User: What shape does this take?
Amino acid sequence: MLKRFLAYYRPHKRIFLLDMLASLLVSLVGIFYPIVTRTMLNDLIPNRNYRMVVIFGLTLFGLYFIRMLLNYFIQYYGHVMGVRMQAQMRSDMFRHLETLPFSYFDDHETGKIMSRMTNDLMEVSELAHHGPENLIISTVSIILSFIYLSTINIWLTLLIFACAPLLLVVSFSLRRRMRRAFTESRKAVAEINAALESSISGIRVTKAYHNAQKEHEKFEVGNGNFVKSRRAAYKAMGQFHSGTSFITDVFNVVVLIAGGLFLYNGQILFGDYSAFIVSVGLFITPVMTLINFMEQYESGVTGFTRFLEIMDAVPEQDAERAVEIGRVEGHIELVDVHCSYDGKREILDGIDLDVKAGKTLALVGPSGGGKTTICHLIPHFYEISEGKILLDGKDIKDISRESLRRNIGIVQQDVYLFNATIRENILYGRQDATEEEIIEAAKRANIHDYVMSLENGYDTEIGERGVRLSGGQKQRLSIARVFLKNPPILILDEATSALDNATEILIQEALDELCKGRTTIVVAHRLSTIQHADEIAVVTDGVIAECGTHRELLEKNGIYASLHRSQFRS
Assistant: This one.
């Protein structure tokens, strides 16, 4: 883990080295005050050398001015370096998230992922900046303080430093408990973010069903867990700080008593004793800095560990033999396909389908039967357990996912639109499209006239998830996106089931236009929309129960005929 963390310093080596140099100089400047104090008390003041007192004072002032500039550099450029590292980690995480399979997002809530990308990486950034400089300043200060204090009185110095192991024992014994507490605290923050993201996204449903109180209760559960976990973290932090602070207070007591005895016995001069009391802070201050660094270290390491959990998630990977393909004809075959999301319950149990290029296959059947799973397997969103899926006779495992998905257009019931303009959402189908191609796609999707009625036309912002559009307008916008992509294979997953009859007719016209000349797989509950399909497959409990044309299935008087009668009873 340390090697991976240090790798993020590599692009910022210059700032890092200057930051460390400035930190070293700050440590060196800190040693001058006790030196000047001792010299004044033992020599300059007793000998009434006021001229040198002023010179020493002005010199010290100059050094402190330089230290001010160095501290500014450390604070400003050190934080800039930390933010840049944080931005790089966030960029790496986002890029990696884009490569993860659907199954990862099935198991991980969006809010929790967002928490790792924001809160956790903020702590990592603070560690990246303050960690090395605190270590350098503190280490150099402790070494210098030992050397300088030894020149005053070696035995008193050894006595002070002998207390250091006790401080280390207390620190490390409490450190592990604090680390566990901060880990739980971060999990609680992630829970709150997940609940908040879910509640805000579903605010319209909440208002429609008057369930604000229910959502508040759900949120308060996570909020209560956060308080509980944070309380445990602060308890561990309190034990850590109070324990270590007590040990550092002991240093002052030891110096006071031991130094007093040394002075009484004539083993140390009064000036040296006074300088030693002043100078012992040279040792205690960096020790306290290291103690405080422990807390920051725990937070930063916890955050980086959670960052690595995402970075170590296995991305979608093409087989070594996978090749890029151009535009395909669109002949799709599923041969004895089995699929299980969790490795236990089979969603598909030996599916066999053969869809010729340019033909339309309709999938019907009860919810949960496996229709949408079939649609997800063709673009290779999930892996199959057994069998194979062929495209133009080639196993899709031997085709790169990117080139495979370039050939497939998908229109779903739940349309996702980005918080951007109408133009940008249509352009998602093909980023290099011209303005004329965008307009043509919109016209073919029956959305152009509506767009032109808007004040800003194609530059109209549609809001989060297209909230400013109706269901039919969202659907037509998604269809325009697929028109622009112009794929040879089309998957329609209940694309009109959530629309009213009038809007469905309008959308169906656009879909009929979209399907021309393309291999099309349609999932539909409304049988009226798929009666002219070249083949209809009834999928139930993960198997193909019936297969044939609309007329053939009616004549079989099986499941399809029963579904047909229930829908057209009137």
